[in-house]
């Protein structure tokens, strides 16, 4: 029997979750504080599914079959009745989430997982006073999760192990790759990794060593190629004959030398932003950003298709 | 008329440069301090070229045409006579490079560029006393450059602007994407970016927040997907409706909060290495590392093929 998920907050992230769950066979209810949003969102899903089918990303299903599983809901109680999962995508403000979660908790079945898509708020801050707080987690995706599998699953101090296990199982079942954090921490895992890299990127451009475009070259024509199918640990594990221990023995000294020069933070909104913005707007004008976002989504979809084929043909 | 390059040091990196130059129509001379190496290396190039042809990476040329451009050289003076470029790939020891460059400088035509593949030694340390030091640079690739276009071009304080321009032109002509550093700096650009990210990765694993495999998931199923065709600056530029300035206004606060917790360095060779190594060897046994490196190279080749097609079909 198919399970049901309630998507609470039906904007871009809610839409992406709806697609991810529906593709995996779940019944999806779309709810939003603005009652006009779910129907509007629903209308934008069909062309996206058609693109996904084209790239082999619907697991052999046709578009109407997946569409038929998604329905708007007008009442929050109705949306949450009998569900196995609630995915909340409300604005990133603690007071909004606290109020919404206080409403959600008694409306959802006691065994349902309540999950937030927040990227910036640790779960303890909006789940502490809930009856059912032991089944509350953050599941933070990069957007859109139907193309980007990684999802951080973050417990509050009172989240039960059983809930974490259930959350991991559901995420895997719908095709995501969960990162099971052992405790909450600001930035979770992915924004911390991104932040560490961006700090160095802004510093190099601020210091005039290279351009922002050249940083992008260093990743998109360099480092990120291997990372995009191996990640950084497997990359270094394969970069010395004896594996990661050999790599650390050979090269840690070099990285240690660089560390002290990474202790200085440059203000991203300072003079470096003028440089970066001038470069970026020279490449993509502000009124062409939306079109470029479409390009990004098409490239991401083609890459996801490539990765599926490569995993099958060459191995994972 | 075709130009000639001398590859000085014909191991793995020298071989990769030989392929990159030969594919672009250059005549390639392979020289090594060990006279047996060039012929041995040459024998391993043909099957690689066949794989590249299969993935559409030889620009429509056939394997024999590219192979015919590569020849071993036994004498360094002979190897360097009349060349336009010298690519040095000697061991990463300053004294080795100093001695070798002192030999190379008088043997190469005065207008030839002398380039080192070093990843760890700034060019001032082995070019200072050379007659022709104004034409000396580092061109540091990620290996192999025939699949990974990014190359850091690093000047010594005395490298002329004309030499840097010429180096950029040659790199572009053979299909690389140069990162033109304005001055030398330890770690150059790419290892600094990699180091910043690895420091955070080792810290998260050392602190027990997630596993090394989950860090890899966060990149290979997450952050690195977008980075692999956009880089980090374009990624954030497209991640807020108003572009990079909007992104910085909205999100810098989050990253600023994380920064203080990134000031502590964990010893990569300490207890965290036991954890990482145990995980990695559980996934790939030490005696299977070479086979896994072959898998990596095949995946990288397939990815390079995908990127060429996607750039054509969807745009770059």
From TrEMBL, chains A, B:
According to the lineage, what is the superkingdom?
Bacteria
Which GO terms are recorded in the biological process aspect for this UniProt protein?
fatty acid metabolic process
- Chief subcellular location equals cytoplasm
One Pfam family linked to the record: 3HCDH
Named from the GO MF annotations, one term is: NAD+ binding
EC number, as in UniProt: 1.1.1.45
Q: Where is the 3-hydroxyacyl-CoA dehydrogenase NAD binding domain?
A: 4-181
Return the annotated site residues (Important for catalytic activity): 140
Q: Which GO terms describe its cellular component?
A: cytoplasm
Enzyme class, one word? Answer: oxidoreductase
Where is the 3-hydroxyacyl-CoA dehydrogenase C-terminal domain positioned along the sequence? 187-250
Where does it reside? Cytoplasm
Going by the UniProt record, its keywords in alphabetical order are: Cytoplasm, NAD, Oxidoreductase, Phosphoprotein
Q: Which proteins does it associate with, and in what oligomeric form?
A: Homodimer.
Annotated family: Belongs to the 3-hydroxyacyl-CoA dehydrogenase family.
Please give the name of this protein.
Answer: L-gulonate 3-dehydrogenase
